[in-house]
Structures are given as structure tokens and as C-alpha cells.
Amino acid sequence: MTLNNKNIFYHGLTFIAAVIFAFVTAITINQVFKGLFFVYPSEKKRLRPITVNTARYSEVKIDKILESGFFRATVGSATGESDNQITSEITDLKLLGTVTGPSSIARALILKKGEKQASVFRIGSDVYGYTLSGVESSKVYLKSGSSVSTLSLYEKKDLTGEKSSTSTGSVDTAAKKTISRAEFQQKMLNDIDNAMQGVKAGPYRVNGQIEGFQLIRIRPYNVLYEYGLRSGDIIKRINGKKVDSTEKLYNMWQGFKNESQLVFDIERDGKVLTLSINITD
Description:
Blueprint: H1 3-37, H2 41-47, H3 49-67, H4 70-79, E1 93-99, E2 107-112, E3 119-122, E4 126-127, E5 130-135, E6 139-144, E7 147-152, H5 158-163, E8 171-180, H6 181-189, H7 192-195, E9 199-206, E10 209-218, H8 223-226, E11 234-238, E12 241-242, H9 246-255, E13 261-268, E14 271-280
Parallel strand pairs: 8-14
Antiparallel strand pairs: 1-2, 2-3, 4-5, 5-6, 6-7, 9-10, 10-11, 11-12, 11-13, 13-14
């Protein structure tokens, strides 16, 4: 191969290498620019609906909730509005329990005759045609127009149910006593050990279930004896509430400080008796 032929050969290789390098460089630069500045249609389709679809679906869900009536029902119960247009007889209503406190907390559990389940009412709410105007520990006030009726937690008619379960079926009043709150606080609440001195008591069970608390022995110097309780008495209810556990009895005792009256349902010699203690300020 002559010198001229060699020069032509090397120049040809250099030209081909330069063309290949330029081609590769152009492709590389083209791909980089596409990646930086071009958004593929699939990506647009994926990104664009995020905000729009969320807003649309949110509107649909909110509309369905508002149209369902759920919130209207909640507001109605909160403000005490009811569909009851006819005022029920007060004798058809039975107070089963109360929660005392500010109007935002106070509640009354009331059962209407003929209904299987009791309902909870707050102050200002409609109670079968009445308006619940006040809640105390053992009674509530129901207003109808200008008149106000009282519904007590403890009703004498409840004793008819108790007496039917006793052997003789008789109901009587054991004692009624009025004491000052200061005396009651000093004798009953300030010193529980002293109040329980001379008393022996325990759960009274029927078929394994606690049906009250029996005073096995109570000495004459004990304050409970002074209030009318005697040895052998079975305390079944206090202010209409069943005494069916030690914990419940203790909680009742702690709540005595807020009561203006204590009504004990006791069984003595097969008879159901009522022991009433009025506490004055």
C-alpha cells in the first residue's frame, strides 16, 4: 500500500468515527430534552384528575349525607324537637333514672307506658308532649303550657310490684323522720366508721342473685337505728334504685350528701315497709 493510499484509508476511518459519534451525541441530547420538557399523555391523564376528581367526589358524598336526613334527625333530638303532637297522660310516664348537673349534662331516663324501651331526654327537650324543665336527683319537672308536673323516681305505685313478691303482700310505712343537713353530714357522712359501729350487714341473695342488703344486727346506739332501721331488715331499694351490689350501695352512700330526701324500701317480717328521711338545709 502506498503512502497516499494509507492517508486516504486513515482519513476515511476518521470520518466514519466522527459521523458515528455525532449520531450518538444527537440521540443522547434528544432523549435528555424529552425527559426534561416533554410530558407524555399517559402522565397528563394520571396527574390532571387528582384535584378535580377529589373535589367532585367530595361534593357527591356531602350531598348524600345532607340529603339522607341524618343531620336533621340529630339536630331535632339535640334541640328537643319531636314528632309527638299529643300530650301523654303524666301517669303513663315513669322516671327510671336521672343525671344531675348543668343543663348541658342533666338527663332523665323516662319510659312511656306501652313502650318496651326507655328514652333519654335533656332539659328543654320534648317528652311526649311535655317539656323537660328541670332535673333533680330523685325527680324531674315536666311543663305543659303554664302548668308544671313532677315525675318522681320513686312512686308508691312501684310498691305494688314489690308487695306481690312478698308472702303477705302488705305495704306499710315504717317511719318518717326529718333531720338537718348538718346533723346528717356529721352522723352519717363525716365518719363512716362511727356510722357503721354496732352494725353487721351482708348481701341478701335469692337464687344466687343479690336482692338487697340485710342488717343482721344493729345496736340501739347506732344512727341507723335512730332513723328507723332494725335488725333483720332487708334494704331493697334506696330512692327507687335497686341495691343489688356492694359497689352500688357504696356509690349511693357517697351520693347521699346531695339528696334532700332518702326513701328506703325495706322488707321486715315478710312485709314491705317505707322508711323516709327528709333532709333540710
